Amino acid sequence: MIRMEGIVLSGANNLFSILCDDGERRLCAIKGKRIKDMTGEYNALAAGDEVEVSAGDDERPGDPGLPVPAGQSLPLARGMITALKARRNVFGRYNEKGRANQSIAANVDIVVCVASPSIPPFRPRFVDRVAILSEAARVPLLIALNKSDMGVDAKTESRLALYEELGYGVLPCSALSGRNVERLAELLRGRTSVFVGQSGVGKSSLLNAIEPGLTRRVGEVSEKYARGRHTTTMAELIVLGGGTRIIDTPGVRRLALRGIEPLGLDAYFPELAALSPLCEFGLSCTHTDESGCRITLAVEEGRVHADRYESYLRVRRELEANREYSAKEGRSAPGHRSSGIRRGDGARKIARFHGREEADD
Ligand code: GDP
Ligand code: ZN
């Protein structure tokens, strides 16, 4: 048996592809009970996770008893994952089908949200959710507006300017024309990034443009829009030269959020976080209908963008509805961070939205 370290590239059905530090890719199952027992999680390991591996020195690629990964002629060597090293951070979402928190990428330096100005249209509400998840992971966010060759309308331009004001990176680019592709590649160099985006925004095309030869599968927008065609693949870490690692994630329609205390949600909106300590009811202000709320005042006066506030309200409703639901089932919501703060009266009012399906944001 040889012991070594490795990084998780991808995984499915509890089998993970690990790039080991001897340069070999091994297909590994989890051995350590502690990793397996990461209860309440959709998946025990995420792309980018650093693990300890033990491998038998008798098993080599070429061994006819080993599995052959799709598109490859040689079977993979095998090993066992014996330990998960502490994560620097983790970017994840809530998996609604699996009803559990899903870690998508671990140990990342930057989140890249790929968006497009049209076909599909720019969805600020989706970007807001990615921003919340990036804040939760404490990882900087770059919004890459692909398809900028199609033209960007004034409304989208102004939303992008707002994101920039809030401290997020914004880069208009185009996989088609090559605009800012080199700049994007520069920003990713030597770092681990995670790419997220709605289907059809051109995430695969952009990755192919950054690294010719990658051959990520590019599809028709209409085909990618179609329901039921989404395969539940895990994110995949791509190793490029010079220490550059990109974690590509399957295109999603919606990013569900859980595990944030509703009363603390303002902390994930930089412009709200700056104002909320000044509210008359302090930390118990829900920023909905309280008198002396600095946030609703700022929205009225146009100092906080009404649409960003609307995003706050929608996510807040989602968190509240989920909490009520979890309480009814007699279990606490997965990963709920306890703030130790009593819920304000506004929360009860918000609960009336309970169970309502949100629009496709
Ligand atoms: P993904 O679902 O985000 O991976 O998107 P794809 O890379 O599969 O691209 C979806 C569609 O958008 C394809 O028809 C691409 O040819 C097209 N596309 C990708 N990038 C661009 C771009 O920069 N400009 C334009 N006009 N079309 C693009
Ligand atoms: Zn308030």
Short characterization:
With 361 residues, the protein is an alpha/beta fold. It contains ten helices and 13 strands.
Can you characterise this structure?
The chain is of the alpha/beta class and about 350 residues long. The protein folds into three domains: about 1-85, Beta Barrel (OB fold (Dihydrolipoamide Acetyltransferase, E2P)), CATH 2.40.50.140; about 90-250, P-loop containing nucleotide triphosphate hydrolases (Rossmann fold, 3-Layer(aba) Sandwich), CATH 3.40.50; about 260-355, Orthogonal Bundle (Ribonucleotide Reductase Protein R1, domain 1). The protein is built from ten helices and 13 strands. A hairpin with a 4-residue loop joins strand 2 (about 15-20) and strand 3 (about 25-30). The model is unreliable at about 225-230 and about 330-360 (pLDDT under 50). It binds guanosine-5'-diphosphate and zinc ion (ZN). Zinc ion (ZN) binds near residues 287 and 294.
